[in-house]
Automatic annotation (TrEMBL):
CDD domains reported in the protein's UniProt record: ACS
EC number: 6.2.1.1
Protein name: Acetate--CoA ligase
Organism of origin: Halostreptopolyspora alba
Lineage of origin: Bacteria, Bacillati, Actinomycetota, Actinomycetes, Streptosporangiales
Protein encoded by which gene: acs
Signal sequence annotation: none
One cellular component term from this protein's GO annotations in UniProt: cytosol
Length: 656
């Protein structure tokens, strides 16, 4: 039997095991080995958070911990001042750690760059001065639309250094998504790339953006990073507006002292999908956010900054990238791997080659990636020496037990605890997760809230549900919570604090709590889809489909997918009752791709003469979901015309 096959057999054997204690070798050296940290946090939560915050370097120490006078607008450490880039860079260099590697970067074609803390500090100071030279000041919004190149970190920290607010847009999102996010946040500068590389192909970024940039009246400058490699053609530059990153840095002064910021000064905006078509501009603060990410990064990943090599595979365009590829690890002086490429390029064993090459000890990734690796086969990881790994993490969606066991066995070789971390763009940092040296894990459960965080399950009327299924709420404010939705205070209150009052944050997920008090997050209760761990809203995808000239109406729902978790099924009614054809289908998918991005493309389109609606005209997505998932239809009595569903079921059965 090959090694891959014997590992697979072991996965099957372990299916009977209900829970896993921390491996003894791990526990013996873990940071946290007993439950006293929970008791300490419970005794005085605010004092506990203040202690975590004091692990950062403050220019002015804070005297108040939490101001909740205007709840749900909470203010943490409000009379203190600090700088996030100082905490991520200067203080480590000042402590003699300038030569420590901040990032081992690996490019798509196997190029490597090693960036030390001292080098990163140098680049950040220069680019911060460069941004100032372009007229950027405290409070200005700077857009960032870059692939996974080191400059993305430089740009984020340079903003933080001068109090500019970054607004990163995921590199896989479309031009239209960039335009919209820049317009609503009134960005003054956009930092982007000439080209991006993906699986051996080069795609133009800057020239594709150009027509959209013309429409942005607040945008004064575009900074262009060379990310396409030496073979890439130079991109067109507009005089007076566009500047090259290399030129900006070369012309800028070398020193730029970090500017102290009020703790509540916004560090960044990150757009995330809400339950309507319009993305939410989630605003994070400086002091509270940095406290949350540095504390959780040490605690949940059991970080030993001197020894560990840590790799978070998330793109910086997502909150996971912000918190656990940039701010958390840098605030803790950790050494990270940054990987530009895809998980299967140039071959499906590349991740394991990278783990071996850099001696990765902590790996943090998503269930969708684990399932893809599972499908490619255990022989790929089996070919590499993965003995450096000591801890594994997952995030983004519920992990199915089979993928958990595969990760545990084939990647972790039963030596590494798995931390299944539940959190959201809004929470800023991890909220529910095991402590790896302490918590017994159950495959598929994120276990318990971490020390300092309090959660509950409630029914629709807000009553606590001690055991069974309910809606997840966080019952006390925490430092890294979102502060507002950019420019939409009322929507902030309505989205998170209207259902259960100003103290209980409504998460939007349903969950189950078992007899041992373990939380099992089941998924979203609103119209938010989760494709490959990425949030998309039904409304967002529907408006992109409806924007196609032939389309009259559309409704999208999800169905379970083995690799991506959820896949999008679109029900589409064409204008004038026209019949759908493969060409229109291809155009619709392309439309979604250009408006939002490739990952939002429907996997199936079902042509619908009519959509199921209530008498008041609301589309009943619930019924569509039941139909695609081949379930008994729920209550159809409120339907205006129940025969619509019969016709649709026939369509679905005949493959659309
Ligand atoms: C960090 C991140 C948040 C939503 C969240 C939930 C789902 C994330 C999870 C999980 C089960 C986990 N989610 N982690 N579900 N177990 N460990 O993913 O943020 O993109 O805002 O998504 O993702 O549904 O509400 P974000």
């Amino acid at each position: 039997m090959t090694e891959g096959a014997s590992l697979d057999q072991r996965v099957t054997e372990l299916a009977e095991v209900a829970s896993f204690a921390p491996p003894e070798t791990f526990r013996a050296r873990a940071r946290v080995r007993d439950a006293s940290v929970f008791e300490k946090a419970d005794r005085d939560r605010l004092a506990f958070w203040a202690e975590q915050a004091r692990d950062l370097d403050w220019d002015t120490p804070f005297s108040t911990v939490l101001n909740d006078a205007e709840a749900p607008f909470y203010r943490w450490f409000e009379d203190g001042t600090l700088n996030a880039s100082y905490n991520c860079l200067d203080r480590h260099v000042a402590a003699g750690l300038g030569d420590r590697v901040a990032y081992h970067w690996r490019g798509e074609e196997g190029e490597e760059r090693t960036i030390t803390y001292a080098e990163l500090l140098d680049s950040v100071q220069r680019f911060a001065n460069g941004l100032r030279d372009l007229g950027v000041g405290k409070g200005d919004v700077v857009g960032i639309y870059l692939p996974m190149v080191p400059e993305v970190v430089v740009a984020m920290l340079a903003c933080a250094r001068i109090g500019a607010v970054h607004n990163v847009v995921f590199g896989g999102f479309s031009v239209e998504a960039v335009r919209e996010r820049m317009a609503v946040s009134r960005a003054r500068v956009l930092v982007t790339a000439d080209h991006a590389r993906r699986k051996g192909r080069l795609s133009a970024v800057k020239s594709a953006l150009d027509p959209a940039l013309e429409q942005l009246t607040d945008l004064a400058h575009v900074v262009v990073v060379r990310a396409g490699g030496d073979a890439a053609e130079p991109c067109p530059m507009r005089d007076g507006r566009d500047v090259r990153y290399d030129d900006v840095v070369a012309a800028a002064a070398a020193t730029c002292p970090a500017e102290p910021m009020e703790a509540e000064h916004p560090l960044f905006i990150l757009y995330s999908s809400g339950s309507t078509g319009k993305p939410k501009g989630i605003v994070h603060s400086t002091g509270g956010y940095l406290t949350g990410v540095s504390y959780t990064h040490r605690l949940v990943f059991d970080l030993d900054a001197e020894r560990d090599v840590y790799w978070c595979t998330a793109d910086v365009g997502w909150i996971t990238g912000h918190s656990y590829a940039v701010y958390g690890p840098l605030a803790n002086g950790a050494t990270s791997v940054m990987f530009e490429g895809a998980a299967d390029y140039p071959h499906p064993g590349i991740w394991w080659e990278v783990v071996e090459r850099f001696g990765v000890s902590i790996l943090y990734t998503a269930p969708t990636a684990i399932r893809a690796c599972m499908r490619w086969g255990s022989e790929h990881p089996a070919r590499h020496d993965l003995s450096s790994l000591r801890l594994l993490g997952t995030v983004g969606e519920p992990i199915n037990p089979k993928a958990w066991l595969w990760y545990h066995t084939v990647i972790g070789r039963e030596r590494c605890p798995i931390v299944d971390t539940w959190w959201q763009t809004e929470t800023g940092s991890i909220m529910i997760a095991p402590l790896p040296g302490l918590t017994e894990t159950k495959p598929g459960s994120a276990t318990h809230p971490i020390p300092g965080v309090t959660a509950d399950l409630v029914d629709g009327s807000g009553q606590s549900v001690p055991e069974g299924t309910g809606l997840l709420v966080l019952t006390e404010p925490w430092p890294s919570m979102l502060r507002t939705l950019y420019g939409e205070e009322e929507r902030y209150v309505r989205s998170y604090f209207s259902e259960f009052g100003p103290r209980r944050y409504a998460v939007g997920d349903s969950a189950r709590r078992d007899a041992d008090g373990y939380y099992w997050v089941l998924g979203r209760v609103d119209d938010v889809l989760n494709v490959s761990g990425h949030r998309l809203s039904t409304g967002e995808v529907e408006s992109a489909i409806v924007a196609h000239e032939k389309v009259a109406e559309a409704a999208v729902v999800s169905e379970p997918d083995e690799v991506t978790g959820e896949a999008i099924v679109a029900f589409v009614t064409l204008r004038g009752g026209a019949e759908g054809d493969p060409e229109t289908e291809a155009q619709i998918r392309e439309h979604v791709s250009t408006r939002i991005g490739k990952l939002a493309r429907p996997s199936r389109i079902v042509w619908a003469e009519e959509l199921p609606k209530t008498r008041s005209g609301k589309i009943m997505r619930r019924l569509l979901r039941d139909a695609v998932q081949n379930r008994e239809l729920g209550d159809v009595t409120t339907l205006n015309d129940p025969s619509v569903m019969t016709a649709l079921r026939d369509r679905i059965a005949s493959g659309g």
